[in-house]
Amino acid sequence: MSKTSILYQHGTLALLVPGLLDGTITMKEMLQHGDTGIGTGEGLDGELVILNGTPYQIDSHGSVNIVPDDFTMPFANIHFANYQKLFDVKDISQADLEKKVVSATSTNTFFSIEFSGTFTNIKTRAVKKSQKPYDTLAKTAECQSIFQRETVAGTMLSYYSPQLFDGAAVAGFHNHFLADDHTFGGHLLEFGSASGTVSIQQFDTLEQHLPVNNQEFSNFDFSGHDILGDIHKAES
């Protein structure tokens, strides 16, 4: 099995819903499984974009920071990049981009999109780090900062998860963004149009890693929570 065909995921989005936000893996450990990825820090401490083996955090102030090896996360995706060019686009909308990508692949597989280019009317967000006792994902996500740019050059890094796995991840596209000049980024909420090169990497294996040594996770009863509803509210 080629290591570039594996998507490694630590934690699940479902465990964030009730507020299980402890950092349960370090960045050093995470980088053993890839050089490209996204995630969030302990207590939803900002939004992560990992490119070319360098982990960047966009914090709630909008600053872009390189995080240390001991930075911990409750949730992250990572893989070893081996993108193949899919197509070039000009002034494409977000909705049309997603349709075009899906029509060129399968909605029943995991894949990643790397879109390098220029984006207009782009809106991102980052959440302020919370402390224990943690609130729910929905409540914590209310304490977010919104950032906007009329035009910015950068990379949109996306993971697509099939509907079958909704809850482990968010079904559909999960998009993060980092500007080329490292002055802007975050969880991508929307953009108006974009021009550039779209590349794809498909995975045939999901390696799901769970924080089994975290007692709160191991003992938690998820049955009283609207897991999917809260994930979709927080990620939109």
From TrEMBL:
One of the Pfam families matching this protein, by short name: AAL_decarboxy
Catalytic activity: (2S)-2-acetolactate + H(+) = (R)-acetoin + CO2
GO MF annotation terms: acetolactate decarboxylase activity
Pathway involvement of the protein, from the record: Polyol metabolism; (R,R)-butane-2,3-diol biosynthesis; (R,R)-butane-2,3-diol from pyruvate: step 2/3
Similarity comment: Belongs to the alpha-acetolactate decarboxylase family.
Cited Gene3D superfamilies: Hypothetical protein, similar to alpha- acetolactate decarboxylase, domain 2
UniProt xrefs under InterPro entries: Acetolactate_a_deCO2ase (IPR005128)
Single GO biological process annotation from the record: acetoin biosynthetic process
Protein name: Alpha-acetolactate decarboxylase
Keyword Lyase: yes
Its EC number(s): 4.1.1.5
Organism in which the protein naturally occurs: Companilactobacillus suantsaicola
Alphabetical UniProt keywords: Acetoin biosynthesis, Decarboxylase, Lyase
Keyword Zinc among UniProt keywords: no
